[in-house]
Amino acid sequence: MVVDRSPAAVPEAVTDLDGSSPGGVQSVDRAITVLEILARTGGAGVSEIAEEMGVHKSTASRLLSALDARDMAQQDHERGKYQLGFGILRLASSIPGRLNVGAEARPFLRALAEKFQETVNLAVLRSNFAVNVDQAMGPSTLATSDWVGSLTPVHATSSGKMLLACLDTAERGRILKETGLPALTASTVTSRPALEKQLIAAAADGYATSYSELEIGLNAVAVPVRDHRGIAIAAVSISGPAFRFDPKKAPGLLAELKETGQLISEKMGHPRR
Questions:
Q1: From the candidate CATH numbers 1.25.40.10, 3.30.930.10, 1.10.10.10, 3.40.50.720, the one assigned to the domain spanning 7-92
Q2: How high is the pLDDT of residue 84?
């Protein structure tokens, strides 16, 4: 008996990516690809998925049927398209409680501090203050302040302003009413309308700045870190002495800082837009 071992005789569902040997890794990879397509498109039919993946419609159909059986995908029978199933939510709901923004952010903070040679901080909003929970020091000998654990006023710091900018009007008003706007330096913003103007700009631009507002001669800029719900849970800032550090003039700094905020946000479950 002669066995046909040509590629055409090997079933597509059991071959590896190179078509040379059987294995389950390819099926797992394809199933994940299907989920990614459904997440990106919001819904797709068998033919659309097959075309994008470069597989036969029967293969796409089998993958969707398997995902449907596990509630990872579900079919809209009126449109005939598939979308993500509620099983995805069941799995995803177990993740946020185990995520630690400090631990997830640490390598990104270090990389940013090394690249721009300034101090990078991660802050969260607690008890009406911006509390620094982690820090990466730049190699400069001037970067000697340890801000970890420090409670800094929200109206006079870039992180505080960024966190305020992401709050709804009522919550922001409550915090500012309780804390007031005390002057810490001659540059501290003590006018509520002036601060609100800065916060509106921060929300629109995606970053907030502070120029000698907390300490004379200290400048900083911050961006938000968001969780899987899109809520700002922290802020990443870069700070340095005013004589050498102007956030808006440092080449590539704002773009790199925003990318860092996005990368940490992705680690916390926030998708890239």
A1: 1.10.10.10
A2: 84
Q: Outline which parts of the chain fall under CATH 3.30.450.40.
A: 96-267
Tokens of 270: 């926030």
Please tell me the pTM assigned to this model: 0.67
Alpha helices, DSSP H, located in the chain? 25-41, 46-53, 57-69, 86-92, 101-116, 158-165, 169-179, 192-205, 253-267
Would you say residue 2 has pLDDT above 60? no
Q: Classify residue 5 by its DSSP letter.
A: -
157 exposure class (CB count in 10 Å sphere: 0-12, 13-18, 19+):
buried
Name the CA radius of gyration of the chain, rounded.
Answer: 25
Residue 49 has which token pair?
């998925």
- The tens digit of pLDDT for each residue in 119-144 reads 999 999 988 999 898 999 877 645 45
Confidence of residue 20 (pLDDT cuts 50, 70, 90): very low
Torsion, Cα 230 231 236 237, to 10 degrees, reads: 120
The Cα–Cα gap between 37 and 19 comes to 23
> 96-267 has which fold?
Beta-Lactamase (3.30.450)
